[in-house]
Amino acid sequence: MYSVKLKKVTPPSDTVSILQKLSHQQFHNRSVTFMDSRETTPCMLPNIAEELSKSANAITQSVLPGTLFRLNVGGKSYRIAADIVLARRTHSLMTTLITADHEHRLTLTDAYLEESAEYYLERNTKITDHVIEYYVTGVLHKPMDTCTERFKEELDFWQLDYNNVAPCCSIQPPLPKSARDKEDLLRRFSNVTCGEVRRDIYNILEEPSSSIFAKLYSIFSIIFIFSSVAGLILGSMPEFQRDNSQAHLYHMMHQKSTRDFSNKPQKFIPVVESENATNDFVYKPTDDPANFLVVMEYICIAWFTVEYLLRLSISPRKRIFVMEPMNLIDLCTILPFYLEMGFGVFGVNLDRLHNITGAMLVIRVLRVLRMARVFKLARYSTGLQIFGHTLRSSLTELSMLGMFLLTGIVFFSTLIYFIEKDEHNTEFSSIPSACWWCVVTMTTIGYGDSIPKTTLGKVIATSASVCGIIVLAFPISMIVEKFACAQQKSHEESQIRQAHMAAMAQNYFLNRFTRRRKACKEPLASSVRAKLNGHDTPNTNGSVRSIA
């Protein structure tokens, strides 16, 4: 409980003497307290506003550059030259207090101490010492025994930017390159046409947590991505073709029978009984999907196209935008559709491209690129983003893993080749074919398509399997550790962000709806009204005298 003991001053009996005394009174007390008096009459009220205005102007002039601004924080008095604070040219609470008038200061502070002429704030004095030091030296340090989040709260109260903190006491971890690029991109919006609108659209498209509209947009985009991938998958099934009457024949054709003497799997080739009967049953399920799948594909492609063009139109750096990995994925998801449509417009029959060397391979690659749509989920999945960042930061470990595997593959494939090459019906006809067996063995997959027959070959296979486990264990464990650390860091940042938002909301409601004693703009008028109404109310004189 902080309280100020007020000095009782008996007012003169007439208005003229009041003005004379106010004009000659020094403002080291910053206010005059009038006690209730029987001689006080309502006719004195018109002059009170003028008197209070003169008092406020005098207080404002007393803290202009070249004078000391008086502040009391948590019971500790501070004196700081106003010109030093204004020289920092930073928009902060201290700057606002110095440049504001008396009435505005009363709304920004918790109280005004009349005897010492100080504005009172109920804040942490330890951090305030460093804030005052920042205005003097230009360097802001964090107290050693202060929590980082508590320090951030105080900086938010004083309206100081986190970048003002000295590097030795940095409260922000170094931003990754992607975050720095994003900040640089947001700054570039201020230098382009309609930058404000384009930045808002960018936040909706790229930041799902920025607003409710961005969250709804991300939900719709995820629905379209899943619908597109599901349509592509269902379109490969014979049951979802326009003509699905021969779907059962397609499944029969792909059934495997028992192995013959050459240990090769055989297939049942169905016989199609028709006028043009043939045993060569050819069924291409992806060429003619059902109508509803085609319509769904068109709708999804239209959504992806509008999305890509909208991102491109609002980007302030279009050349860099086109070359970004995620935007290349977006382009790959829609490019095959328009290329196939272009072939149809120019009269090119895709079925005739089978006989052109390499042409059908290009078409198949374009169709496979449509599956790149699944990678669009990385825009809205924190886990996928963390995984991608982990892989990029683990290039050293991945290169080490590749070197270990390459060394082991070359070594064991060479051994198994020279040991097994003279055996009857050997499957190790060359070192490259033995490399395939070595890859499958060292990665502990073991398809069983190639099997060593000699005892020494089986010993080498066992050694290759054990070495593969050892080789894979060390780099993968380091990659997993990096992924776990990145995930933990992301979780902590999310918790800090939520706590910060909750604290901001709490401070807003406390400042907006708190039951704080307000300074009276007309102190003598309130005293007169209280006397006339018969209430024994203490005089406020435009300030709050105590804080609970």
Would you give an account of this structure?
Keywords: Cell membrane, Ion channel, Ion transport, Membrane, Potassium, Potassium channel, Potassium transport, Transmembrane, Transmembrane helix, Transport, Voltage-gated channel. It is found in: Cell membrane. The protein is built from 20 helices and six strands. It is mostly helical. The protein folds into four domains: 171 residues, Potassium Channel Kv1.1, Chain A (2-Layer Sandwich), CATH 3.30.710.10; 143 residues, Four Helix Bundle (Hemerythrin (Met), subunit A), CATH 1.20.120; 33 residues, no CATH class; 118 residues, Helix Hairpins, CATH 1.10.287. The chain has a four-stranded mixed β-sheet. A two-stranded antiparallel ribbon has the order 1-6. Strand 4 and strand 5 form a beta hairpin. The radius of gyration is 40 Å and the shape is elongated. The N and C termini lie close together (5 Å).
